[in-house]
# Entry
Amino acid sequence: MNERVGNKKLWGGRFSRNTDELVEKFNASIDVDKRLFESDIEGSIAHLKMMAKESIITRDDADTLIKGLLKVKKKIENNEILFSASLEDIHMHIEDALGKVSGDVARKLHTGRSRNDQVALDVRIYLKKETRIIIELLYGFQKSLVRMAKSHLDVIMPGYTHLQRAQPVLFSHHLMAYYEMFKRDIERFEDCLKRIDVMPLGTAALAGTTYPVNREFTREVLSFAKVSDNSIDSVSDRDFVMEFISHASIAMIHFSRLSEELILWSTSEFSFITISDSFTTGSSIMPQKKNPDVAELVRGKAGRVIGNLVSILTLMKSLPLAYNKDMQEDKEPLFDTVDTLKICTSVYTRMLENIKIHKDRMYDACKHGFLNATDLADYLVSKGMAFRNAHAVAGRAVACALNMKKELNDLSIEEFKDLSELIEEDVYGFITIDKMISRRISYGGTSFDNVKNAVAKAAGELGL
# Structure
């Protein structure tokens, strides 16, 4: 049987007239913050245990209310409670439902706290859990990257700058660049947890409370790392929300950059990869089309998360201390960011494992576009020429080859010698694609041994 929450305000003692129905709807946040019900009940149970320990309420009353809260939790999980704008938020809904389950003793639940420190606690409990889930999801995505790199160690592709073919690189090296990006994302979220993991309950509305609350005990019950130090800051701090969404925005930018590359690589113009049919869609009018919609959606959703960051930054930028009703608007961008990053990470992990790599097409692309021009300059340096002079000779060689519609390795030795007498027959072996890869031995470079070692190191870090 569904139970309708009552219309009586829990804060209504000072007011002589009913709230306008439109204002009730405008003021309410229940449609958004109802997802905090587990965190709210968890925090309330810890608060009751603390009050019983400090004899603020009796142990019997605390036990009755804890049992009642667990019943309320079950009712919410079973959709047995209908939410109403008249009770504004999840806190008042739970307290009202508790009164129906436990009777008048429920009025003692709010002793020694405010909705200000209560909601700050709820959001921190929620975000701690979600941040840890996101970290694990990102680790899962990294594993997909490393597995793909490990199975394609010998694949060579054009590396790009300015979206122009630049130098050949290992495809696995390119993937490991994203491994490094997401490694930093994980580090940021792990560091962010230090600021999230602070317990604000017991600071009440802004000034603290006159009750002998034991905030350290509450911290231990809730497994927070530390207790907040300033009551005003405790209820008005949303730095941790801004920081989380900022880190999420960077992670989504990384996904967006990868999306752009997968979209390009899957075109007929590139044909470097084929994305599985399971992660693409067709056209309603063009039967031949196979669209990389997943990658495109992730690229689009990056803008959504960045918008959430702008929203929370703008929300907080002019707020005086302490709590202001504006801060009710912090949850929509936060929840949307959490949901978006989680689904994008999950779908990308599965999609990446279902991409086919066209090794020969990638290698063939390295043969065109003078990707060996820098190596020709390096060859001349190895013969004793200054690099700036060598660079100029290599540039003239490219111009010559372009004029004759050739690649550098197609020039005859006589044509090379017209450019420099230092060039000998061994130049052809020097500017081959595989040799160009092998010579990139500087730490972090794309040589075969470097990348093999980097993949092995990453696999060890991830327990693969």
